[in-house]
Amino acid sequence: MSPEDKSKEPVDWAVYIKKTWIKWSILALIAVFLLLFKAIVSIILLTLASALLAIYFYGFTGLLQRYLHLPAKVSLIVSVTLNLLLLVGFFWFAGSRLESQITQLSDTLPSTIQHAQSQLQQSALGSKVLDYINSSGTGGKTSAFVRHFFSSSFGALSDLYLIILITMFFVASPMMYKRGVVHLLPETAKDKGDELLDQLGDVLKKWIKGQIIGFFFIAVFTGLGLWALGLPLVFTLALIAGFLNFVPNFGPIIAVIPATLLGLMQGPTTALLTFGLYTLVQVIQSAVTQPIIQKRMISMPPVLTVVAQVAMGALTGFWGVLLATPIVAIGMTLVQELYVKKQTYHKYPLN
User: Fold this and answer.
1) Contact 219, 238 (CB under 8 A)
2) Could you tell me which of 257, 272, 266 has the C-alpha nearest to residue 280?
3) pLDDT exceeding 70 applies to what percent of the chain?
4) Which of 206, 208, 285 has the alpha carbon at shortest distance from 252?
5) Where, by residue number, does the polypeptide cross the bilayer (predicted)?
6) What's the pLDDT band for 346 if we cut at 50, 70, 90?
7) ∠ CA 135-136-138 to the nearest 5 degrees?
8) How many CA atoms, within 13 angstroms, populate the side-chain half-sphere of residue 250?
9) Can you tell me whether residue 30 is helix, strand or coil?
10) What does the pLDDT look like over 217-229, one tens digit per residue?
11) For residues 213 and 154, what is the distance between their CA atoms, to the nearest angstrom?
């Protein structure tokens, strides 16, 4: 049949309308999925944060059982109560001081940034850097990124409320949720799934342990160093440095900026010493606590961690950057246990 004859055939409008509806329905489903994807990822991240907090409570419970020989339920109650009392006590004794220093820091930083700009304008290279930033709009892009970085889908208060609420459920009956996940697996994979969940919990427990050790190490030594240099707002800057240790790669860079700017107010020498202090503390921390973090924990390529942080940060903001490392650890553990270990390497053996 020639093309001219085909063009003269009658059109089946019912089939045409059906195909059109199918195409538009698929496009609509894709659009709805993309709109809901960010919210779904945010909910998963909050659930992961709750699971990490519950793992911390049970890890502390294990310490109480080991050293005080308390029953399991009593140790869990003591673990949760003691940590809550420590948190309340911290804000009771140091909350007002922390609040005043944060307010002072937020009031001081604008003038500090202006002072830094005036210092840069005194050199030819600094002037070129400022001209590039102003002409390219990098400053506005950076501000927008920072606002998105420290934002989340539901707001800080609602995020914390959801994390605490889900953590309470996880702490109250963790085995119920574990059994629920295992029941979703095929019969032949239930034993492997149960073993894999225990292994993931062990990996995350070691990550939390290393991060807590790193937090105290960096906060204490950074605070002592800033106090020796005579910088103001030592308490707040030390806590910022400690907390941002939970965000590898980018956290130390963010932490050093306000301290260096405050040091610049006292002179270029103080700013350089402050920058050197943060660098030295990070180097020592990497040599002392990093082996504890990586001990018996899956090795994560730095490039993969950075890419995950950038991608998760662009998608969900602060929570994505904060939880990118445990997400990578979970993903690599699953790939290694479910795929890599089942492969037979003849040319490139693992050992």
Assistant:
1) yes
2) 272
3) 71
4) 285
5) 21-37, 43-64, 76-95, 160-177, 215-240, 246-264, 271-293, 313-335
6) very low
7) 120
8) 18
9) helix
10) 899 999 999 999 8
11) 30
